[in-house]
Amino acid sequence: MDIPVTSNKVDWNPILCQIKYRKGHSLPAYTGDLKIALLNHVGLTNHSKGEEAYQLAREIARLTTCSDPEIVYWFSRLVSLIND
For labelling alongside 7, which of 14, 38, 63, 70 has CA 20 to 30 A away? Predict the structure, then answer.
């Protein structure tokens, strides 16, 4: 999946750069707590829709690979709807 590095003026590169392949895993994964990182990155830690956007991104990603890069992609799309 081609993940945009910038979406709605949010640079996702700092998050994407921390996604790495781990030994014994077939999909790349974020090295820390992805939910906290994403919410902090866009300033939605205390926003009423922040947690909901993250959970929805996970649910959408679960339909295909359920990989961390895909969760970042869908979260970036949902955040753009919240910020409009």
Answer: 63
Label residue 9 by pLDDT band (50, 70, 90).
confident
* Cα angle for residues 4, 41, 27 (degrees, 5° grid): 55
Please report, to the nearest 10 degrees, the dihedral formed by the alpha carbons of residues 68, 78, 11, 25 taken in order.
0
Domain positions in the chain are 18-83
**CB burial of residue 54 (10 Å; 0-12, 13-18, 19+):** buried
User: Following DSSP, what letter does each residue of 7-74 receive, concatenated?
Assistant: ETTEE-HHHHTTEE--TT-SS-EESS-HHHHHHHHTT-TT-TTHHHHHHHHHHHHHTTT--HHHHHHH
Tens digits of residue pLDDT in 54-80? 999 999 999 998 899 999 999 999 998
Query: Which pTM value belongs to this model?
Result: 0.85
